[in-house]
Specification:
By secondary structure, the chain is an all-alpha fold. The chain has a domain at 346-358 and 367-443. Helices cover 71% and strands 3% of the residues. The chain is built from 21 helices and two strands. Strand 1 and strand 2 form a beta hairpin. Helix 12 (243-255) crosses helix 13 (261-273) and helix 19 (367-388) packs antiparallel against helix 20.
Length: 443
């Protein structure tokens, strides 16, 4: 019997040694594997059987070795828990009833708890990492337990601090967003969690994850202007010069369609820190809606000063011309409309704005001088209509304006008195407006 036992020990040592996991028989001196050399030999052998049956996908047999190791050598190897994780997931997938499935899910959750207990201090794969794995799997296997899901995710985030996988944050935030849409959580709870998670995401160096996070928030419907202003006004009061925070606030306020004074102030501050044409255009647009054309022009001029793309420059010239008209500077408006035409002679919109500038400028004239400028307005509108095309949304507006200015033409008697024949070419001039046009008689 003694000789048989010695052979068994030699065989066991050989099996363990050839596994490649242990150097010689060092595990015999490692208390993680058991209280006595015999226990350590036995548990090391069980570990090899677990590994082999797991690799052969013999999960029914592997689960027996797993349970034995969890009871007798739970600190022996992290691989015990990695193998166990996949074993239980396989058993869950092959469960024949809901009760059986739930029992294996409970076992999987207990496995995570044991792993935290025995390997929670593992560098890089310690308690925070394990808690995140547990929360993800609980969401997968217990999707209806909303309170349980939220608790596990919140606990994992609290344990992880700012050192957390951004994808994990987005998984949690998606669940929050879904619950908010279904009225399972109220606005205050949702906004409070968003604020907490947003602070984490600000420190993440992952542009795609940040975009996903913001898209989820916008999709929730909670990202309306009052909520955004309330949240960001407090944050910016504490960090008024934080460029990242200004960018975040301005981006979300823009996405929310906000055009309030707060939005403008954030945009102006952000432009001051990070000047670019897109920000300038957005601020200008908000100022235009408030009829602050002088303020809008400041940003439009700043934008065009650095713009090199011809198409964008044409658009900017037209925008500036429109704001100049709104500010009562018709002459400046005409200058920018002409710049747009010079860059793109096929811009019907530029001709339309030029016609409006002429019409506004004509108001400074009197009598025949004013009426004759309408010929120039009419010519320019005809050119705009030709370039815009019949299907353009502006075409109907042009038709209406043509009728309006046609009604203001000089009468036949006035033209006859001045020796002007219908259809003749002539030069008209009034103030800053002058140009060649065609005589047209009114009624």
């Amino acid at each position: 019997m003694k000789r048989f036992y010695q052979k068994l020990m030699l065989l066991t040592a050989a099996v363990v040694t050839t596994s490649g996991v242990f150097a010689q028989s060092s595990f015999l001196d490692d208390p993680k594997w058991g209280d006595s050399p015999e226990d350590r030999q036995k548990n090391a052998l069980e570990y090899n059987f677990l590994r082999d049956t797991y690799n052969n996908q013999n999960y029914d047999q592997a689960i027996g070795y797993l349970r034995g190791l969890l009871q007798n050598a739970p600190k022996a190897s992290e691989n015990i828990y990695i193998y166990g994780n996949n074993i239980y997931k396989n058993k869950i997938a092959r469960s024949q009833s809901l009760d059986e499935k739930n029992a294996y899910v409970d076992s999987l959750m207990m496995l995570y708890d044991l792993r935290i207990e025995h390997f929670g201090d593992k560098e890089g794969r310690g308690k925070p990492y394990i808690m995140q794995l547990k929360a993800r799997d609980y969401l997968t296997y217990k999707p209806a337990d909303r309170d349980g899901i939220m608790k596990l995710f919140k606990d994992a985030l609290a344990e992880s601090g700012n050192d957390v996988d951004p994808d994990f944050v987005n998984i949690y935030f998606k669940e929050l967003t879904d619950d908010y849409k279904l009225d399972n959580i109220d606005m205050d709870t949702y906004m409070s969690e968003y604020a907490n998670l947003e602070q984490i995401m600000m420190g993440v160096d992952d542009a795609d994850a940040k975009k996903t996070f913001e898209a989820l928030f916008i999709s929730s419907g909670a990202a309306d202007c009052p909520n955004l202003e309330k949240m960001f006004s407090a944050q910016l009061a504490a960090k008024p010069d934080d460029v990242d925070l200004l960018a975040k606030a301005f981006g979300l306020l823009t996405s929310g369609g906000c055009k309030s004074d707060f939005y403008i102030s954030v945009g102006e501050k952000y432009y001051e820190k990070q000047p670019d044409s897109q920000t300038a255009l957005l601020v200008a647009s908000a100022l235009e809606e408030k009829k602050d054309y002088a303020g809008a022009l400041k940003y439009l001029r700043a934008a065009i000063a650095t713009e090199t793309d011809p198409k964008t420059k044409v658009d900017l010239c037209i925008r500036i011309a429109g704001s100049e008209i709104g500010a009562g500077n018709a002459s400046n408006a005409a200058d920018f409309a002409r710049q747009a035409i010079e860059i793109n002679p096929e811009s019907g919109l530029a001709y339309l704005v030029l016609a409006q500038a002429y019409a506004v400028g004509a108001n400074a004239c009197q009598g025949f001088a004013k009426q004759s400028i309408y010929w120039l307005v009419y010519d320019t509108l005809l050119k705009a209509k030709q370039l815009l095309g019949e299907d353009d949304p502006q075409a109907q507006t042009v038709d209406s304006q043509l009728a309006t200015y046609r009604a203001g033409f000089p009468s036949k008697e006035e033209c006859f008195f001045r020796g002007l024949k219908e259809g003749a070419s002539c030069t008209v001039s009034c103030g800053w407006i002058s140009g060649r046009t065609t005589v047209r008689q009114g009624n």
